[in-house]
Amino acid sequence: MIKFKPQMIIFDVGGTLFSDGNFNATEGLEQLRIAAVNPEITSAEIMSYHWNQYINDIRQSFCQLEIPLSSVLKFVAMKTGLQFDIPMYKQEEIFDRFNSSRSVIDGVEELLKTIKSLGIRSAIISNNMMSGESLEESIKLWIPESDFEFCLTSADLLIKKPDKKLFEAALNFAGVNACDCFYCGDGFIPDVCGSLKSGMNSVLLDVKSDVSFEIRNYENKQYIAVNNWNNFSEYLLK
So what's the architecture of 25-98 in CATH? Predict the structure, then answer.
């Protein structure tokens, strides 16, 4: 049985903190266009064309690396002539806010309150095109009471989970040992496999499971699986 009070709990974002609807780049780009100094110079459809062109070309050459959202938005702005008087992290947040519907996963807010009440530190590691700075801004918009020490994204370092270097960098930055941390996510390969290989303890959100809480095994290592974050809150409070 995995039982100890962790020094830190690190979270994934998509599917873990938030549930997002279908991605719609055009909707996000339209709101970004409106936020520009000269929005009349282009349209969301033209911006979307350049978005798709850039993404497709880059992925053919660098399919294993993360594409920073800042690079794509800068390319689209330069190709269309758009100019902004707001910083890039804010441009990223606007695009993110409007490119899909979003809701907070059930149990997340209560779990974060539990972690804070127990004096456990918290942070974010996410496979995300956004920078850590803009992702933190976005999280605060949806969960104002969140108190993460830092947000590290794959776009910050260009490498993606399950690459253990992403986890190791965050642990070294936080000054904590892997064995003293939990990593919480909803993906088996990026989250469970990646965190276990880095030496962390892992918690999988498996909403399809009929079991509220169980210990599972992977390559001679144990990890926790819950079907609702309230069940992990109860575990931490025991």
Answer: Orthogonal Bundle (1.10)
